[in-house]
Amino acid sequence: MGKPTGFMEYERLDRSYAPVADRVTHYQEFVIPPSEDQLQIQGARCMDCGIPFCHQGCPVNNIIPEWNDLVYRNDWETALEVLHSTNNFPEVTGRICPAPCQESCTLNLQDEPVTIKTIECAIVDKGWEEGWIKPLIPEHRTGKRVAVAGSGPAGMACAQQLARAGHDVVVYEKADRIGGLLRYGIPDFKLNKTLLDRRVAQMRAEGVEFHVNTCVGEDVSVEELREEFDALVLAGGSEKPRDLPVPGRDLDGVYFAMQFLTANSRMVQAVPGAEEGFISAEGKHVVVIGGGDTGSDCVGTSTRHGAASITQLELMPRPPEKEVKELTWPDWPNKMRTSTSQEEGCERMWEVLTKEFIDDGNGHVKALRCVKVQWDRDDEGNWQMSEVAGSEFELKADLVTLAMGFVHPVHKGMIEQAGVELDPRGNVKGSTEGEKSYATSVEGLFAAGDMRRGQSLVVWAIREGRQCARSVDEYLMGHSNLPRNYSPLSA
User: Fold this and answer.
1) CB–CB of 216/414 below 8 Å?
2) Is 303 exposed, middle or buried (0-12, 13-18, 19+ CB in 10 A)?
């Protein structure tokens, strides 16, 4: 694929970013993509490696070498067709996916992987610019009706696939706009929401009906949906945040990360009434507890507010600067990563445990009492955490965001009404393989995305939504022409 000797002839070139001083003054995307000519050369770097490990590295099994080759040969429209054959929303994954495919690239053995994510984003962006992306309206309607609860990436992908199979699909979203976590959970400077709006418009043209401000389990019951529809897909995500039950947790100024991020996104997107719930970090000493992507988003948002200082705490040890390729490749490695938000300015601390939120005397947080920890293996080889004696310290804080992940979906309401069986982690139980893949313990009810697998990546949610759609189609029709393994040959 590409030019067989391209990886030896051409240097790696990836996207760049606007200067920090410029981009922190707004909430627009700040990526500077390479030119089309440069991207063609980057496509040529995709070597004929024999076994394309990038396929396995990508959760949706993107057919990466093929569209790299097509870009190299300047056939962008066909590249778009190949890309869309596996991924409903590449403009999203091309922006926010951590790109495990690149870690699996054979050229990553020399730390120079093909710039897969950048090429993917360029293909779909060019597709929109050229008007190549149009609604795919089915020739025939089945007369079957499917309800999808949740409009995140899993629910959206599932709904679009089912609509293209000819079913009547209705999506229910509890928020006031479509997109789930993509809409309000991910900052606009990472994902411009016009990208979601045009996909929603495409899906409407394909026959998908959307109901916002409608929470399944409250505004409409599961039983009502089961009576009205032939199948119901639970795709509500994993929204129960991991808490930090230490003294002072109930003080003002301590928020879950999604409270902070959602409130900001609603302001940026000019949602009516957003001012009432806005949480400002301006002039405040901000502490973000949690070192992952959500924590990073809190950092970038606080920077744009004009925070006085930002400190990000992580309980785990600092990762190594570089992985040992012989031990990790082609799998996702544990190594030091610095996000664009972290580059914009924050202090990062590892192996820190928060013991208490300290009251300023008026019911508001003023500081954190913390302690350093260390990790050691016990006699059975398991990692155990212990506090380092004499390492206690206080950290000034006017605003704290808890970004420690999510434990499982919210059970109250929809899941309780559905009566579906849960797995030991509290997720909706359902297999991904076999005749009843993505089916729950209740007839006609299916589950996909984080609600089934637990907190994960957007690209995994898209995979699950697509696979779940095929299972629903088989359930309704006895067979399905929707792809299962994400190849044009797998229909």
Assistant:
1) yes
2) buried
